[in-house]
Amino acid sequence: MATTVPAIQVLSKNNYEEQYIVSLPSAIPLPPLAHSAIRVRPNILSLTTNNFTYARLGHLVGWWDVHPLPPSIPAEFCDPTKYGRISAWGYGVVAESNVSGVEVGAQIYGYLPIGTLPVDLEVQVAPNIVGQLLEISKGREKLMTIYNQKAKEKQSHGYDSLFRVLFETGYLINRFVFAWEPDLVVLPSDGSDGPHVSNDAKKWTLVDAEVGDNTTVLVFSASGKTALGFTYFLKRRRPAGKTPHAIVGIGSNSSKTFTQETGLYDLVLEYDHDARDLDAKLSLDANSKIIIVDFGSRGGAGYRWAEELRKSHKNVIHLGVGGEVIADSPEKTTEKFLSSLKNTAKLGTQVNASEMRSQAMTIMGERSYFEDFRKEWDLCKEKGVVNGLRLVWGEGMGDWAKASEKLCQGEFGPNEGLVFDLSDDCIKKQ
User: Fold this and answer.
1) Does residue 380 fall inside a structural domain?
2) DSSP for residue 68
3) Which residues, at least 6 apart from 25, have a Cβ–Cβ distance to it below 8 Å?
4) pTM of the entire structure?
5) What whole-number distance in Å separates Cα of residue 335 and Cα of residue 58?
6) Are residues 225 and 259 in the same domain?
7) Which residues contact 280 (CB under 8 A, 6 or more apart)?
8) Are 135 and 198 in the same domain?
9) Alpha-carbon gap, residue 140 to 161, rounded angstroms
């Protein structure tokens, strides 16, 4: 009888643009499943520039260690100092289970390895949250907690895989960092879960969190999916009197049309626009509050605008959410990362989604937090997520490899969301 031979993506740790789709015939048969574990086969995964961020910063925050090279890897790829695997957000189907309450055939949403090789996950069923699992595998102990949560769901898998976790980051910033209820304000980063990048995060106050008629919000890398999630909330999900005077999207020329078509921004500008022109365009003065939320602008544009605007405005807040996606060696990436920490300490605060989430759940309770977030995400999906954003489906690891190469070269538009169905992808072995 024919059996399926799994295939995985393997990347060069020195250059994530160097990828290989590697078949693993010796992985079959799979070993016995451990106690308190489930075996999950990835079947729907999303591909975004975040995948490249996981590779670029993997040596700094442990993303290379989440799913190590399997024992069945061919000899030419077995050196873990040269090659590794990253993961993607999406769905997998439970192929085997030794966990009570998790049935074979169940769909698991989470941070899964790229490929069709099943992954064994040690999990616990959350006692107070229906459909929630917490992964406790030893290899993931150092990973930020947001990457260890998984939820069983059966619908809207494409949008969930592509957008849900990015949407949640936007939800956290809007709902809790810029909270309109004083009891819900959280620190952008408290240093308890992951690298502590700015002491200024400890100084976040109710005044900093306030958003109202005197506030203008500048969103850099405005067409990115995390930025769109944040702006969706800022524009549509705040109470009267707690919305900004204006939301300005700032990005590249190539993304300008899509950014305008989303309908989320009052004004769309390019990175090289003169920051001093804002006052005239938006009727601002020296007392106007300006919030810069930078989702990975090119060439440090967010820092540049912050420096310029502080010359004429008394209250300019700068939050960093991620960094510019560019293929660098681990050494160059580390150098840039350390440099960005200095800029952050000088000009603003780098947010940490995992830390914000932990604080929010402490305040609200886990059940209330997940119920509120699920309600907001379901409402967003009912409305079509973002105007102009469409899912682009691929099938199998071959399509994944081609799309990854094109995404590295910038050949996909910001209005295209890449998702892949791996459920029927296999190589037959007689």
Assistant:
1) no
2) P
3) 5, 72, 427, 429
4) 0.82
5) 14
6) yes
7) none
8) no
9) 20
Cα–Cα distance for residue pair 386/24, rounded to 1 Å: 39
* E strand segments, 213-325: 215-220, 246-251, 267-270, 289-294, 315-320
Cα(31)–Cα(6) distance, integer angstroms: 14
- Strand segments, DSSP code E, in 6-117 are 7-12, 19-23, 37-47, 83-84, 87-97, 107-113
Cβ-based neighbour number of residue 84 at 10 Å:
23
CATH code, domain carrying 419: 3.90.180.10
**Per-residue tokens: 102:** 């998790």
How far apart CA 24 and CA 72 sit, in angstroms, is 6
DSSP character string of 293-330? EESS-GGGHHHHHHHHHTTT-SEEEEEE-S-------H
Based on the domain organization, do 141 and 172 belong to the same domain? no
Mean pLDDT, the chain cut into blocks of 10 residues (430 residues total): 78 91 94 92 92 78 86 95 93 92 88 93 77 68 50 62 92 97 89 42 81 97 95 96 97 95 97 95 96 92 94 94 65 60 59 92 94 93 87 94 92 92 59
- The secondary structure of 364-405 as a DSSP string is H-HHHHHHHHHHHHHHHHHTTSSTT-EEEEEEHHHHHHHHHH
Same domain, 108 and 206: no
Contact (Cβ atoms closer than 8 angstroms) between residue 296 and residue 221: yes
Using alpha carbons, select from 296, 295, 294 the residue that is nearest to residue 336: 296
Helix axes 301-309, 330-347, angle to 10 degrees: 20
Asked whether residue 376 is assigned to any structural domain, the reply reads no
Q: Do residues 188 and 80 both lie within one domain? A: no
Range of the domain at 186: 165-358
How far apart CA 172 and CA 357 sit, in angstroms, is 7
Q: Please list, in sequence order, all residues whose beta carbon lies within 8 angstroms of the beta carbon of residue 311, skipping any fewer than 6 positions away.
A: none
In angstroms, the CA 87 to CA 71 distance is 18
Alpha-carbon gap, residue 31 to 119, rounded angstroms: 11
pLDDT of residue 299: 85
Q: Which H, E and C letters describe 7-28, residue by residue? A: EEEEEECCCCCCEEEEECHHHC
The H or E element spanning position 266 is none
CB 90 within 8 A of CB 70: no
**Identity (one letter) of the amino acid at 377?**
W
Closest CA to 291 of 195, 177, 169: 177
